[in-house]
UniProtKB/TrEMBL annotation, chain A:
Superkingdom per UniProt: Bacteria
Family annotation (InterPro entries): HMA_dom_sf (IPR036163)
Organism of this sequence: Flagellimonas pacifica
Gene3D superfamilies with a match to the protein in the record: 3.30.70.100
Protein known as: Copper chaperone CopZ
Entry keyword set: Signal
Metal-binding in keyword set: no
Record GO terms (molecular function): metal ion binding
Residues in the signal sequence: 1-19
From TrEMBL, chain B:
A GO term for molecular function: siderophore uptake transmembrane transporter activity
Protein location: Cell outer membrane
Domain of life: Bacteria
InterPro entries attached to this UniProt entry: Beta-barrel_TonB (IPR000531), Beta-barrel_TonB_sf (IPR036942), CarboxyPept-like_regulatory (IPR008969), Plug_dom (IPR012910), Plug_dom_sf (IPR037066), TonB-dep_rcpt-like (IPR039426)
Gene Ontology CC: one annotated term: cell outer membrane
Pfam families: CarbopepD_reg_2, Plug, TonB_dep_Rec_b-barrel
Domain TonB-dependent receptor-like beta-barrel per the UniProt entry, residue ranges: 252-676
GO biological process terms, semicolon-separated: siderophore transmembrane transport
Family: Belongs to the TonB-dependent receptor family.
Membrane topology: Multi-pass membrane protein
Assigned keywords, A-Z: Cell outer membrane, Membrane, Receptor, Signal, TonB box, Transmembrane, Transmembrane beta strand, Transport
Positions of the TonB-dependent receptor plug domain: 95-195
Protein name: Outer membrane receptor for ferrienterochelin and colicins
């Protein structure tokens, strides 16, 4: 039993040390306001082939993802998220997409932070 | 010009000073002074400065003296909070789950797990028999052996502890309960058929440091509950939990010469260790529980020293000691939050020595359980899976009068469960396990749950699954010993007392809608479940001289329909109403019959009101009413007329109520009553005056034996 646990950890360790490109953790800031933004950002990210995990923090605006760099790139993820209306440094959301966001998600308007964001 | 800072006035430079409705103005100098030309047509001077409330002053003299400005009051953020209801049905979980938290357990006397379901409509609480009065629960019209109990996701209350096990878990140790209707998950084994109830115990790291509860009722039942927790480091804590109860008053109010409720003693002790380190990802629990319980009941004149196993007087004693050891080890990969593994092991020894009149029933059950689970994803967190292996070993050593039954069960199984979420409202969980079992054979267990969002705040769920188990016929129907019924087993080449195992499919569909009505949430749900037995051990009470066990020939099914409405009618006034309808039919040797002692319908209402907190003080009121429709009674036609019962019981109502006064966050006091409308069964024991005669039977119990029970208690916690 003890031996098999050891073997398990050895295999695990080997796969983790080998996994740099397979499980790359990326973090960057994504502009947004509320729970609806969170859902939109995370859904868009996770549906990109190669994105394994996506999490956006409403309070800190920090976006964290684990990506398989063989299948996608950080640049691709940023482009997609900006493409659905959320600004990222170096990537600006298209105005028409941004304007179509619900009023409470229009983070460029300082008033929007005071809006009722509902429980979405 | 000055402003006020605390008690001191300080000069305010650079404040704006101007005449009302003009453009003539100036500012104050560095020492706060100003001069402004006077104009006869302008009477009012406005003084303003950023961060201060502006002031308007009527000018009627040349020197205005000290003018004091006050800072703009900045209100702190006002947080409006709404507490989550203590009973929650999620719109988003794939399974049909009701989550109950510890606050719900404060709504009833809730001395132990069996009583904690009394304010909860998903589960029905029944009393096993008129002698021992053990509370048992049912789901979907099926008795507790068909549902899986787990304690912290490890199987519990099974085998030998089937009848009394619920009373071995004190309510005050429970942090929360999750009730899953229908097939359940493949992770916890193959036995569950109608549902899965998981109870989570309090956790030493986050639990209160100290908790004390004392309780007493008018039938001389006393309870003591205490919890003590200590954090040894930031990551390691231990808890010591003690429960004791005592009932030492002889209660006999209905004239049948039998005590209405047992004399009882229980000491229950638990020590838990919890290790939690979010930085390195390890979490671990180790728990030891020891219990010693004894119940004594019988005729008032029964003296255990002289009358045991004689026909001087009828009496019974059930002595149980139980040891539980369990450990859990979990690891979350710090870099990969979606990947983790868990390893659980549990060992228990349950030893019961009992006699019921002239019947002896002893059981010794040793059980070992071990489960390894690995969680990860396939590609992305839209596709999750859990997989692992489990090992179980159970040994039973039973003495039924002069017959010995020994049986060992062991199994090894592997499972795989896949969860898909399309993030647009469709998700499902598909699970399969394969087990090799020495008595049940090699078999697969499929389970499937699906959830779909039809529209906003509405969920449609469907599930199906199969369960398989061997019936421990004596342990599960222990009340049969408190009767003169002869035990008959019709063997069928099976491994369980000669009987074949039980196997059933369960199918369910449910719909839930949350709505806002007058700005308050209303949730409505309706569900329908059907259980179809492929194989069953039929427990046949239809001949009043016998109880027989045989394998099903023909059909056996249970249909259950439940409709729930929860609504906050007024601020902090909640109503919970439920209607249930059951259709449970089995082909007995004597023909197809409804399951005995099963109400055809039930109606449940719970009202709860909490006053606004004033300081830390609060009143809480809770009222529960249960209406039970008629129940078919086992056939008693061959008894003499005085021991015959009608084919159906009357319908009746039970009312419980409780008032809690919270004096502070540390101390609260409660009083309450159960069965306050005093409904009792007319003749709970047949032939109670002649308990060694052929017609003695305490098993046909459809209503309480005890009249109104009134209790009081307090809770102290820091």
């Amino acid at each position: 039993m003890r031996k098999s646990i050891l073997v398990f950890f050895l295999i695990l360790g080997a796969s983790l040390s080998h996994a740099q490109d397979k499980n790359k953790t990326v973090t960057f800031e994504v502009k947004g306001n509320c729970g609806m933004c969170k859902s939109r950002i995370e859904k868009t990210a996770i549906k990109i082939a190669g994105v394994k995990f996506a999490l956006w923090n409403v309070d800190t605006k920090e976006f964290k993802a684990i990506i398989d760099e063989r299948k996608c790139s950080i640049d691709m993820v940023k482009k997609k998220i900006a493409g659905i209306g959320h600004d990222i440094e170096g990537y600006t959301a298209p105005l028409d997409v941004y304007d179509n966001l619900p009023a409470c998600c229009q983070y460029r308007n300082p008033e929007s932070i005071h809006m009722n964001h509902g429980k979405h | 010009m000055e402003y006020r800072d605390g008690k001191e006035n300080i000069a305010l430079p650079d404040a704006n000073v101007y005449w009302l409705s003009s453009v003539v103005g100036t500012t104050t100098d560095s020492s706060g002074n100003f001069k402004i030309p006077y104009r006869g047509d302008l009477k009012k001077l406005i003084i303003s400065s950023v961060g201060y409330r502006s002031d308007t002053i009527l000018v009627n003299r040349p020197d205005l003296g000290n003018i004091i400005l006050y800072p703009t009051v900045v209100l702190d953020e006002v947080v409006v909070e709404k507490q989550v209801a203590p009973l929650q049905k999620s719109l988003f979980k794939v399974q049909n789950v009701v989550s109950v938290d510890s606050r719900e357990m404060l709504k009833a006397a809730c001395c132990n797990l069996s009583e904690s379901f009394e304010t909860n409509p998903a589960v029905d609480v029944n009393i096993s028999d008129a002698v021992l009065g053990a509370k048992q629960i049912q789901m979907l019209g099926l008795n507790s052996p068909y549902l899986l109990f787990t304690q912290e996701n490890m199987p519990a209350i099974r085998g030998a502890s089937q009848i009394f096990g619920l009373s071995f878990i004190p309510g005050s140790w429970i942090e929360g309960i999750q009730i899953t209707k229908g097939a359940g998950s493949v992770l916890n084994g193959f036995e569950s058929i109608s549902g899965h109830i998981n109870s989570e115990l309090v956790k030493p790291i986050i639990d209160k440091r100290f908790f004390l509860n004392l309780y007493a009722n008018n039938f001389e039942r006393y309870e003591f509950n205490s919890r003590l927790n200590h954090n040894l480091t930031d990551n390691l804590a231990t808890g010591l939990y003690i429960h004791a109860n005592l009932r030492n008053g002889n209660i006999e109010n209905n004239g049948d010469s039998f005590q209405d409720t047992p004399l009882a003693k229980q000491i229950n002790f638990m020590n838990r260790w919890q290790y939690l380190n979010p930085e390195n990802g390890w979490v671990s629990y180790a728990t030891i529980q020891y219990l010693n319980d004894s119940k004594e009941i019988g005729q008032l004149d029964f003296n255990i020293d002289t009358d045991k196993l004689t026909n001087n007087n009828w009496g019974s004693e059930v002595k149980t000691s139980r040891l539980d050891l369990s450990s859990k080890l979990g690891y979350v990969f710090p870099e990969l939050p979606y990947q983790s593994f868990g390893f659980q092991t549990a060992y228990s020894n349950h030893s019961q020595d009992a006699f019921y009149g002239l019947n002896i029933y002893d059981i010794n059950h040793n059980s070992f359980y071990s489960n390894f689970i690995f969680n990860s994803i396939i590609g992305s967190t839209q596709h999750k899976f859990k997989t692992g292996i489990s090992l179980t070993y159970d040994s039973f050593d039973e003495t039924v009068n002069s017959t010995n039954y020994n049986r060992d069960d062991n199994s090894i199984g592997a499972f795989f469960e896949y969860t898909y979420d399309n993030l647009e409202g469709l998700s499902f969980v598909a699970g399969l396990r394969a087990d090799m079992h020495n008595n049940l054979g090699n078999f697969f267990t499929p389970r499937f749950h699906l959830r779909y969002s039809l529209w906003d705040k509405a969920s449609l769920r469907a599930s199906f699954g199969r369960g398989k188990r061997g019936a421990n016929i004596f342990a599960e129907n222990q009340q049969l010993f408190a009767s003169s019924r002869q035990i008959i087993i019709n063997p069928n080449d099976g491994n369980y007392y000669g009987l074949k195992p039980e196997k059933a499919w369960n199918y369910g569909i449910s719909f839930m809608q949350k709505l806002y009505i007058l700005n308050r949430v209303l949730d409505f749900s309706i569900d329908f479940y059907r259980t179809d037995f492929v194989d069953q051990v039929v427990v046949d009470w239809e001949n009043p001289r016998e109880i027989s066990f045989y394998n099903l020939e023909g059909d056996s099914y249970s249909n259950s329909l439940q409709i729930d409405v929860n609504y906050e009618m007024l601020q902090d006034f909640h109503i919970r109403a439920t209607y249930k309808h059951f259709d449970v039919v089995t082909d007995y040797n004597s023909g197809a019959l409804e399951k005995p002692l099963q109400p055809l319908s039930r109606f449940f209402v719970n009202l709860n009101y909490e006053t606004l907190q004033r300081g830390e003080q609060q009143w809480r009121f809770d009222f529960t009413s249960n209406w039970l429709g008629k129940q078919r009674l086992p056939n008693t036609e061959s008894n003499p007329v005085e021991f015959q019962l009608p084919p159906y019981s009357p319908s009746y109502m039970l009312i419980n109520a409780q008032v809690t006064k919270v004096f502070s966050n540390k101390f609260e006091f409660y009083v309450g009553g159960e069965n306050i409308n005093n409904f009792t069964q007319n003749m709970p024991i047949l032939s109670g005056n002649n308990p060694f005669g052929p017609y003695f039977d305490s098993t046909i119990l459809y209503a309480p034996v005890l009249t109104g029970t009134y209790y009081a208690g307090f809770r102290y916690k820091i």
